[in-house]
């Protein structure tokens, strides 16, 4: 990269004022500072400053991937439909609408890579022959296309985005776990080097499949995901998957008799607390869902919330919805608000959350209009459940399951990286068979690993910005220094000193920008702050005495220093 | 890039024997050495060795483009159909079949970039406002897709290929010429640095439009283009466009009377030479073409060939074809073989080639069956032509038009770069208007500049290879050294010495490959030669004495040197 630039040459020029169509601070700033330009929904041009940031981000990724022992390749950006039919994913991706492609002139369907499991596994089917070739991790950095229904937030959820994707092949499960761990550690180094505040969390692995996955989340105020992380250990998880130790409750040891009490029009947990004066932790909440068209009842402690992602996984359901009023009435015999595990039709499947396990003398709906049961005991009033499942949502303030000491706190994050253990599914479907040490053919164990590099650029813009503009960490800043002469008039002391400094720093190889425009000093400072260069050098009144002012964009610190010390 | 590699880890492994579906030596070697793998016609994966070569090629391009003052950007790979309708090129590209795309989920048409004039000009329409922003050259390096009818020769004419494309914007024509010259000089440096034997030639600018263009041609035996270049000066041109000074002829000063002579069934120049015993240089050859459905007659000296590309340009024709027998008969009144400028219907347009200008006492067809005219004189037997056009094909042995001293010789080449002056056509069509110094709006003058980087990789494979394998120049070699131990058995002197050397060179940052496989020495040498590493270090019998053999892949030179001197 050429290390120097004059601001008059930067294309496109920055602009003042608000921008339309951008929802988040980072998105607005990237537009105003000319880093990106929208071509169509979710499609962008990248300007020269964005390219410099992207090159630095990708150079860090490349170094760490190569250092991890992975081999850089490039997989065809256009993928034959036949490979997607082989893996069985074409219909699903087409149904979701995110796969984009067309027919070529010979009538074959080609798709713009939304991901590359199919093509890389097909390559392995052709060229991976022996256990001696493994462990093997292939990686590439290139565009992906996902035709999002609602592209938004600039490069965050664009339709075209750059991604580093890697795929590991191992002879056995243990090898897969080792390769996964190597990549996971490389990812931590990568995001640390880029300058991110990030956490690594357990994640629901969604559409990719496979078991065991972690997300790397950049912490921002505008993240699409809600995260819980421990203030004591390194535990962190997407709220969709987070586990926790919830606050307990001292249930009475007294064995009062079961009573059915009238609760006229009192339906919600809050209404019951007020009406009866007892804690929600003494109540069992019973919700009716419909999982793949079959009603199911879910019980959890009254103060907790059912986590539908967890519930869906427990049920192995494709579609899970909360039941309509009519379904609730048909299933429980009572309107919404009066369901409970006691006296429910035995045909209805009943899921108990782990929070219910130790409850005694609790309140629950009586499956009759305006009636609840009080002082219910498992084993006395109804059979003790045969199993419990974690189907409630963990929350800030809960204790950490990993260290049992820390407290979870909530933050929002943007997923910048994701690592998965894919197991053998793809390899088996695509017919990859290598010869083991015992000469028998078998399918390799795979992992896949992604980092969104254009997304990293945008995530950093969201994570580090203020009302004045972007604030790049040095590791990925487009230029390290901006020189702002107080005036840039021919013959002025400031111009002469600024030109000389620019020349000297350029010679030395510093990444430096000179604001050579003949605008106001204020507008130049404003642009330097908008662009987000880490260090601003003001060449002002004292330039004649060899003194300049150095401003740290991140901390706002200002100091007068000798021009020779820069 | 990680500088070291063990051959056992290279994926995919090389293979022996012939490959199917590859026509050229370079294509076969790239497949055998695992540099490329075909996914579908014209679509390839690139292996780790190819990626290293490609990175080096692209790094040279990046350095020179940045040094030229151009700004690196990235233009959306998917382009809205509306921009192509605005430029008026969509129908043409669709008709040619090379544009590939589809409908997105909202029903809009998106095309995978076959080139980027439309999107970059539309960007300029939005962000280029003042003459102060120019000269401006934007460049990018990314994939392009052209759905070729007959993809062939691997990366040479693949459907997906990587290209550096640049676009210059200037306030006036002089500026455009300067920007063009800057890029042209950068191109010469780029191909020189890559290590190409190449020439720069004038070219027909084809479908891109605009006036003034040059091609950079890598010289190979398998090139798609035929070139003529001077052995004395730097003149070179594609044969489609080459000019030359053809050998003259002493026409008699005697003014013999015009005669019509019988030439029974004697039609071709060769037959006439034999039949009459006169030189073809004394004959005017007259060919009938159909240009956009209108017949036209073309006269050139008998020993020369009509150049249809030149003729098409002179006529400004869209479609040019040689006339059918029926059209010839209708147009000249005689069958094929007896046309001539004398006595031709006056309604038929007549084009005279420059070669006819000084001819006297010549022979030509009489537009009657089995009849020719002899001793024809312009100004006496028929009116002297009002103008002459260069519509013949220059050929090896002709004198150079540029230096008037050298002789042209013929070679074959692969186009690796192309520079064009686009003028104002795109800017006007896409509505780009900048404010001139006089505050009036006007359209910028543009240029466009392309280098096929994956094509460079393949072109070098064709230019530098032998029956043993690829031969990379150091500047773009994937690794500089291959260490081949004569044996790689635990405890052997060769293994110990090879490991130590590999370790030392790796530490020092050398790009070095160690063949750590336990195959035969011969097969390892064969692989190193196939892969094309510039220097092979054989660690053999004398390793114990600290002596190794250094083999230069390009020259074949072998020398014994001290292990410490490497």
Detailed description of the structure:
Two copies of one chain form a homodimer. With 566 residues, chain A is an alpha+beta fold. In chain A, the strands form eight sheets. In chain A, strands 4, 8, 9, 10, 11, 12, 13, 21 and 24 form a nine-stranded mixed beta sheet that branches. Chain A has a six-stranded mixed beta sheet with strand order 1-28-27-29-30-31, sandwiched between helices. A four-stranded mixed beta sheet of chain A has the order 17-15-16-18. In chain A, α1 crosses α11 (453-463), α2 (48-67) packs antiparallel against α6 (173-194) and α2 packs across α11. The first copy, chain A, starts with a strand and ends with a strand. Chains A and B meet through β2, β3, α2, β4 and β5 of A and β2, β3, α2, β4 and β5 of B.
């Amino acid at each position: 990269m050429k290390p120097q630039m004059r601001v008059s040459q930067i294309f496109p020029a920055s602009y003042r004022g608000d921008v339309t169509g951008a929802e988040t601070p980072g998105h607005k700033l990237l537009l105003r500072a000319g880093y990106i330009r929208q071509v169509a929904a979710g499609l962008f041009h990248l300007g020269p400053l964005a390219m410099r940031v992207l090159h630095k981000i990708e150079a860090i990724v490349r170094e760490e991937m190569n250092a991890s022992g992975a081999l850089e390749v490039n997989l065809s950006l256009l993928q034959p439909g036949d490979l997607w039919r082989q893996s069985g994913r074409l219909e699903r991706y087409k149904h979701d609408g995110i796969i984009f492609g067309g027919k070529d002139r010979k009538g074959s369907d080609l798709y713009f890579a939304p991901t590359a499991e199919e093509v890389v596994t097909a390559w392995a089917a052709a060229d991976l022959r022996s256990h001696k070739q493994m462990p093997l991790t292939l990686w590439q950095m290139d565009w992906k296309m996902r035709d999002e229904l609602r592209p938004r937030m600039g490069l965050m959820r664009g339709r075209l985005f750059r991604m580093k994707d890697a795929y590991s092949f191992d002879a056995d499960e243990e090898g897969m776990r080792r390769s996964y761990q190597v990549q996971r550690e490389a990812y931590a180094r990568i995001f640390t080097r880029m300058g991110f505040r990030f956490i690594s969390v357990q994640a629901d692995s969604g559409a990719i499949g496979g078991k065991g996955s972690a997300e790397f989340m950049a912490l921002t105020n505008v993240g699409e995901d809600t995260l819980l992380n421990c203030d004591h250990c390194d535990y962190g998880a997407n709220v969709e998957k987070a586990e926790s130790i919830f606050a307990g409750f001292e249930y009475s040891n007294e064995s009062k008799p079961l009573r059915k009490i009238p609760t006229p029009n009192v339906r919600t947990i809050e209404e019951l607390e007020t009406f009866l004066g007892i804690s929600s932790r003494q109540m069992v909440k019973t919700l009716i869902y419909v999982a793949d068209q079959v009603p199911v009842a879910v019980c959890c402690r009254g103060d907790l919330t059912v986590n539908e992602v967890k519930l869906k996984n427990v049920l192995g359901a494709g579609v899970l919805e909360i039941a309509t009023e009519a379904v609730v009435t048909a299933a429980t015999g009572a309107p919404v608000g009066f369901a409970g595990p006691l006296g429910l039709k035995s045909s209805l499947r009943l899921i108990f959350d782990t929070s219910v396990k130790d409850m005694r003398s609790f309140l629950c709906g009586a499956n009759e209009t305006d009636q609840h049961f009080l002082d219910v005991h498992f084993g006395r009033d109804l059979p003790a459940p045969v199993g419990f499942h974690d189907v409630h949502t963990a929350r800030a303030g809960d204790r950490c399951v990993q260290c049992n000491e820390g407290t979870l706190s909530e933050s929002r994050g943007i997923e910048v990286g994701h690592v998965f253990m894919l197991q053998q599914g793809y390899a088996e479907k695509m017919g990859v068979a290598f010869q083991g040490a015992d000469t028998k053919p078998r399918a390799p164990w795979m992992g896949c690993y992604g980092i969104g590099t254009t997304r990293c650029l945008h995530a950093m813009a969201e994570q580090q910005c203020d009302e004045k503009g972007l604030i790049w960490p040095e590791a990925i800043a487009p230029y390290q220094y901006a020189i702002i002469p107080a005036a840039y008039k021919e013959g002025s002391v400031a111009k002469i000193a600024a030109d000389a400094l620019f020349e000297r720093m350029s010679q030395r190889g510093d990444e430096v920008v000179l604001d050579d425009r003949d605008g106001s000093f204020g507008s130049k400072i404003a642009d330097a702050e908008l662009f987000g260069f880490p260090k601003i050098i003001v060449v002002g009144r004292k330039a004649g005495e060899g003194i300049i002012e150095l401003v740290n964009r991140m901390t706002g610190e200002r100091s007068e220093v000798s021009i020779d010390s820069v």
